[in-house]
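Standup notes, protein team

Yesterday: finished cleaning the Heracleum sosnowskyi set.
Today: Dihydroflavonol 4-reductase structure.
Blockers: none.

Input for Dihydroflavonol 4-reductase:
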Amino acid sequence: MEEQRTVCVTGASGYIGSWLVKRLLERGFHVRATVRDPGNEKKVKSLLELPNSTTNLSLWKADLGEESSFDDAIQGCEGVFHVATPMELLYQEDPAENEEIESTTLNGILSVMRSCSKAKTVKRFIYTSTTSTIMLQSQPPLDEYTEDLWSDVDLCYEHKMYGWMYVVAKTTAEKAAWKYAEENGIDMVTVHPFVVLGHFITPNTSYSTDAATALYTKDEANMALVKKLHGLSAVHVDDVCNAHIYLFEHPQAKGRYICSSHIFNIFEMAHSLGPKYPDRNIPTEFEGLDKSQKIIPCSSKKLMGLGFEFVHKNKDVGDLCAETIESCRGKGNEKVENLLELPNANTNLSLWKADLAEESSYDEAVQGCEGVFHVATPMELLYQDDPAGVCIVNMYVLLVP
């Protein structure tokens, strides 16, 4: 009888991580899934409900900020898929917080790799990087982005464009990982997607789902995000996870691999989505944006040259975004679905992300309004018996600008 193969997936409760666990289980792997809190039923329930999870899945507590916390999970594994990354980097503007999260990203990957070295069983280390470590160039290429390019970190510090700290942290971490791999004899392969679309398993949305649903929800912050990123490189979540497994198993896989099957801008996204949701009155014109501006694609020639095939390559961007939207309607956006169906919502309603606990998070939503109705309140107050907890919740209320 063939011996069962054991692998570890970090960040298993995330968008890509959970789908990767699903695909590995389907292929008969025994999967050790690391999460920060295995006792958090909301985050791990979707993993525990996957086919074959009762026999082939185990949850392990590990944290990128804690050295050696991945040791036990990785010991005995032949493969490690390092998917975990602090996505707070995309939205962080506080310099002190930036440094802390950058440090967590860098030290986190090195901690996982040190655990691989200690285990002495890991045959290949697959790291989920991003095309953000490739695309930020002072002089972009004329035809396409390829794996030999590295994002200009100094350019990021100089201009501090949207998500710049994410680019800095991921680029710095990946370079450090390659150095460690070379010095310590680790067979490492990196996978580089950007926007990942399609159905998702977890109850929480991600940066990619925010981008995919922006035109549908008319969320102003997410709309602004898609406008800033003129050309979006995208891939179906199923394809990116299959690419991870393919590169783990292929004996000739080596180095960095861009994983992108689609390239589009907000105009193409709007024209493709509009007919699918005619009741949403999705806009097709965007002031200040030039629809004729050339989009430079991220090339997946290296990955395809190894024999990999994108299953979802023939779907248009509207199909991919629609899958994401429908998944949100069924899971992540249950709280707003009734709002979107209200009379006149198509023309007069916009959704804004804000949190009572985050200073200034209401600024953009309130700017330009002649009236503000503050209805939000932490309902935990009704059920809180811990005096310290009550103080924290009260503090959140007082923080509202």
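Follow-up from PR in the comments: Residues 379-384, 388-401 have pLDDT under 50 and may be disordered.
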